[in-house]
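Session log. Operator J.P. requested a structure for one protein chain; no other inputs attached. Running the standard single-chain path with token output.
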Amino acid sequence: MRLDRVALFLLLPLLLAGCGAKMPKLGFGARDSRPPPLAELAQPAPDTAYGFCGYCLLDKDGKQVPTSAAIRGYFESAERKGDKVEVRGWAADIEAKAPAAEVIIIAKGQIVARGRPTQARPDVVQALQLPPTTQLYGFMFNIDVAQIGDPVVNFAIDRAGKAQSLEVIIR
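Structure written below.
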């Protein structure tokens, strides 16, 4: 079994948490794109406190975070690179016509990755007919292999603070 396929099996529980929305399968445009302007990357790190129970996200008061109908996105690739798994995808808040406010990955009862989309994705902008003012809809996380385990749950957060699971379409 190839190492990049091992990453697929490690992230297989993400398949169970998909949102079911039918969106176009978009290609990866970020790898060959020029880096975005530094000003667009200089955003404060997310600091909202979350809890979780099984496959749900809880707010700081222990209440389930409402589901977002505005989030669209996918986990598109997972590749093992030594002792890390590189996970890539995109997440958009289509109501705000902006990147998702945050992407969170939870495994073994802990947040193992979280952050804002910072990768240029002109293909997402074009496919979803979003304004070209920002193209930062892509995300990439490097997660320690030792941190991956059941259950693995993922969420994208919209501008209103609501959450939605991202579907996995690893090719």
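Operator note: The radius of gyration is 15 Å.
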